[in-house]
Structures are given as structure tokens and as C-alpha cells.
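Quick illustration for those who missed Monday's session on complexes.
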Amino acid sequence: MRIVVLAGGIGGARFLRGLRRAVPDADITVVGNTGDDIHLFGLKVCPDLDTVMYTLGGGIDEERGWGRADESFRVKEELAAYGVGPEWFGLGDRDFATHIVRTQMLDAGFPLSAVTEALCDRWRPGVRLIPMTDDRVETHVAVESDGERKAIHFQEYWVRLRASVTAEAIVPVGAEHAKPAPGVLEAVAEADVVLLPPSNPVVSIGTILAVPGVREAVAGADAPVIGLSPIVGGAPVRGMADKVLAAVGVEATAAAVAEHYGADLLDGWLVDAVDADHVDRVEAAGIPCRAVPLMMTDVEATAAMAREALALAREVRPA
Ligand code: FO1
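Prediction with FO1 bound:
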């Protein structure tokens, strides 16, 4: 079975761990969000690609959900001693090595997709990980601060400000001119099923879908497209998705996120059992919907979610 997953960072990575457990023999292609990417200290940092690579490769810091296990922050401390920041972004010593290798390869002329493949040669994540694009796309957030409207990098909004200021707009800068990375459209066209994990629907999956051609390919795919709600009981399972949903005028409920993706994209939607009363509203929007447990408490619970998503795929598109 060929499965394509559009993934952001922590939520996407944890879902993928369960998916691999549920279908160990499946051929899984992950299209990763690169809108969160940031240049720091002259290095290219790709938080979502790295979170997927480290999580599936066994190198992630389990507690934080990002960065390397057994990490130290000596380089960052030394940079701070020179007055060189930003101090608010935690780049660890082991993680620095990844960004140095990536940046050297990019500077040598390799596209991000080839660099990601090379990094995965070390981590062996058990999936094919492709960035959504080789072109530069950076998510910026329009915020109002001291009566002035300005756009800041997504990481500054998310990590430094902890989404504490009102986001008025989310702009994937550069997306309109970006091309899908080699292999993205082919993987979608050849897939037996496309899954939208419980990643952030705006700044993760929304950004991937904003790359011209990707939304059209997914919506038009022969394969069923099944999504899992990142909102349970009216709040994000993790992170601050409610803040960016508000910026695009979508309420933070399991049903509203399904409507936001739309019946043209989704062939099925899973909500958590506590949101069973949302099923009728989602189905009224033309999207088959089931209520099942959606808390990724451990790999087995996550594998059960993945099995439910694949069961719904079979139900909506019998072979
Ligand atoms: N998230 C934080 O909350 N604080 C950090 O200092 C931080 C550093 C960081 C370094 C490398 C990396 O790959 C990810 C990192 N993240 C950090 C996570 C990341 O910024 C966001 O959670 C994602 O971009 C959202 O998907």
C-alpha cells in the first residue's frame, strides 16, 4: 500500500510513528512543511523536516518533541556571550551539526529535497521524506503591536511570543511562486491513500496545500483523502492551533476544521470520541465522518488511530 502523508512537526511526526506501527510494510511518503524554516547564524533550520526525521529515526528529544535527545547548548551559550542571538530559539549542539551539513550542501548547489534525502541516509526514518518545495517559502504572521501592524517570522510569533499577540493574518511568503519538490505530485498521483494527520491545519498542512499544484493534486487524486482532527473538545491537542485558526476566521472545533479543508479535498474525517456530536455537521458538509479516540498517548494508541483512518479510506472508496 502506498500512503502519502502531509505533515507538520510534532503532531505529524508522532502520527507517523503510529502509522508505521499500524502498517509496517506500507510504502510511506511524507510531504513535509517548510514554511516554518528559518535562517539563523547563517544556517538553514528546517524544524518540521527535522522533527519528522529525528522522531522516526530515534533521535528526538521525547519530552520537548523537537531537537535532539541528550542535547547540550554550549554553542548557543557561547554565541550569547558574544551578544549574538536570538536567544529565544533553542538550537542545541547536536542539532547544529544537522544545520551545518544542510547549509553546506545547499551552498554547494544541492536542492533541499536532495539534502533531506542525504540527511535521512543517516537517520533511516523508514519513510520517504520530501520537503513540500525546494523553493524558499517562509510563513510570516501579521500582528499588531504598540498600535502598529507588522509582519514577523512564524518562529518569532510561535516560539518567542508563544502566540500571545493576536495574529491578524498568516502569509506563506513565496508560496505563490514555489514549485512542488520533485516527487511530491508523483507520490500523490500514485497513492492508494492520502492522510492529513492531526498537524496544524493552517501553518503546517495549509502551507503545504498553498504550494501551487499541491491542493489540486490532492483534491483530484484517485486515492481517498482522510484527515484526523487536531482539535479535540474545542482545543488543540497540542500547540496553539486555535490562535492561527482564529487568524483565518475558523473556529477551533473539529467540525469547523473539516469544513475549512472542504469536501472538495476531504473524502473522510475523523473526530475524537468526545466530539461525536460534530459528526452530523461534518457529514452535512458532504464529508463522511467517524468519532474514534484521537489522543496520541502512546505509539499503540496512535497506531489504532491510523488503522481507523485506513478503515475509513476503505469504506469511502472500496477497492
Ligand atoms: N520550539 C520551541 O518552543 N522553542 C524552541 O526553542 C525551539 C527550538 C527548535 C529548534 C530546532 C527545531 O527543529 C525546532 C525547534 N522548536 C522550538 C520547535 C519549532 O519551532 C516549532 O514547534 C515548529 O516549527 C512548529 O511546527
